[in-house]
């Protein structure tokens, strides 16, 4: 199987996706890598029907990779995730409208080009969380206590002034009171995993990042998000507010931190999606298991893609290039982790 990864400069040394690329190569698949931010791309040759079994995107929200992925989709190539699903979550304003319309538990959302416009939000809804509509990795997210603080410079987590980087759209949502801990739910082609971690809005709150169990309610929310947006590999930030769980962010192809044997699982999911296409059903099966009488336990089924008869081929000419050599050996090829039990924790 021949795959193409679009990797932004920001992820040049990141284990996700570079370890996945190496794992796929170790399984006998040919993996080409395009670096959209630092290479000349011969579009007419690189993007054409039949050139690859699938294209995979790992870039920042505002990067050029999504345009290239959309071009690959228009050429009839499979994309991971489905390119329409990626577009739906990369724009947080669009994602908020889609989620709200589908009845998902998301905050009321406002949009403006300048932060001072949010002063028109009823004061009773403050504090609010302001962030760029095309933001990622917690970039320029800030908590604004009162309308008169809207023009304050962004804090350490932000960049530059209070407006959106490059003059883009901003969104604002009422702050959801919580414990200061984020719950991140990851979906790997239908399998759900959850972790607790420190909220970017509360950096002084000491939280040990760890995997936690899922309740049926949280599992169902995460699965519904996958179904509504048509995602297969994704993450959801969920807060446990006073009125119940609230989804505050959705990411395609996240870090999958704390997911057991994440590299092997994600690699296997990519092979399956490249071979069979997107299911468009999110994590419904995993959520159904969480909602049953007892959680699914024991050794997981064999990971597909690990055994393959494909023969590695030589690296292709630029713009494709191999990822940098790893400083340490890649993840073992034989995953051993058990499937997580069903129950939860978290909140920002």
Please give a structural write-up.
By secondary structure, the protein is α+β, with helices and mostly antiparallel strands. It has a domain of 67 residues: Dna Ligase, domain 1. It has 8 helices and 13 strands. The strands form 3 sheets. Strands 11-10-9-12-13 form a 5-stranded antiparallel sheet. A hairpin with a 2-residue loop joins strand 9 and strand 10. Helix 3 packs antiparallel against helix 4 and helix 6 packs antiparallel against helix 8. The longest helix has 15 residues. The termini are far apart. The C terminus is likely disordered.
Features:
disordered C terminus, 4-stranded parallel beta sheet, 23% helix, 348 residues, alpha+beta, 8 helices, 5-stranded antiparallel beta sheet, Dna Ligase, domain 1, globular, 20% strand
Low-confidence stretches: 157-161, 292-301, 307-318, 325-348
Main sheet: strand order: 11-10-9-12-13
CATH class of one domain: Alpha Beta
SSE class:
alpha+beta
CATH superfamily of one domain: ATP-grasp fold, A domain
Shape: globular
Q: Specify the biggest β-sheet.
A: 5 strands, antiparallel
Q: Helices and strands in order, then pairings?
A:
Elements: E1 2-7, H1 15-26, E2 30-34, H2 43-46, E3 54-58, H3 65-74, E4 79-80, H4 83-90, H5 92-101, E5 110-112, E6 128-132, E7 142-144, E8 170-174, E9 181-188, E10 191-198, E11 210-212, H6 216-229, E12 233-241, E13 244-252, H7 262-276, H8 284-290
Parallel strand pairs: 1-2, 1-3, 3-4
Antiparallel strand pairs: 5-8, 6-7, 6-8, 9-10, 9-12, 10-11, 12-13
């Amino acid at each position: 199987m021949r795959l193409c990864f679009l990797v932004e400069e920001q992820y040049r040394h990141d284990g996700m996706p570079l370890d996945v690329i190496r794992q796929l190569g170790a399984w006998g698949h040919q993996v080409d890598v395009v670096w959209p931010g630092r290479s000349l791309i011969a579009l007419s040759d690189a993007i054409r029907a039949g050139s690859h079994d699938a294209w995979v995107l790992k870039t920042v929200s505002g990067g050029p990779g999504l345009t290239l992925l959309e071009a690959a989709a228009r050429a009839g190539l499979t994309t991971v995730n489905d390119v329409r699903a990626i577009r739906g979550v990369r724009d947080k304003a669009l994602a908020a409208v889609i989620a709200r319309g589908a009845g998902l538990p998301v905050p009321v959302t406002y949009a403006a080009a300048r932060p001072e416009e949010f002063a028109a939000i009823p004061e009773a809804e403050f504090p609010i969380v302001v962030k760029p509509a095309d933001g990622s990795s917690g970039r320029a997210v800030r908590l604004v206590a009162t309308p008169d603080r809207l023009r304050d410079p962004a804090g350490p987590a932000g960049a530059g002034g209070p407006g959106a980087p490059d003059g883009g759209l901003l969104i604002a949502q009422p702050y959801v009171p919580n414990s200061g801990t984020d719950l991140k739910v990851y979906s790997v082609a239908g399998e759900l995993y959850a972790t607790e971690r420190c909220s970017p809005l509360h950096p002084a709150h000491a939280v040990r990042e760890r995997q936690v169990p899922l309740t049926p309610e949280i599992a169902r929310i995460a699965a519904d998000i996958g179904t509504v947006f048509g995602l297969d590999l994704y993450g959801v930030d969920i807060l446990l507010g006073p009125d119940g769980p609230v989804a505050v962010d959705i990411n395609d192809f996240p870090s999958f931190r704390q997911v057991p044997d994440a590299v092997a699982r994600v690699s296997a999911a990519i092979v399956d999606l490249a071979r069979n296409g997107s299911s468009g059903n999110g994590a419904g099966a995993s959520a159904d298991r969480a909602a049953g009488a007892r959680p699914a336990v024991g050794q997981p089924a064999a990971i597909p893609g690990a055994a393959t008869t494909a023969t590695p081929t030589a690296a292709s000419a630029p713009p494709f290039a191999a990822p940098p050599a790893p400083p340490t050996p890649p993840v073992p090829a034989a995953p051993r982790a058990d499937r997580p039990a069903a129950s939860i924790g978290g909140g920002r």
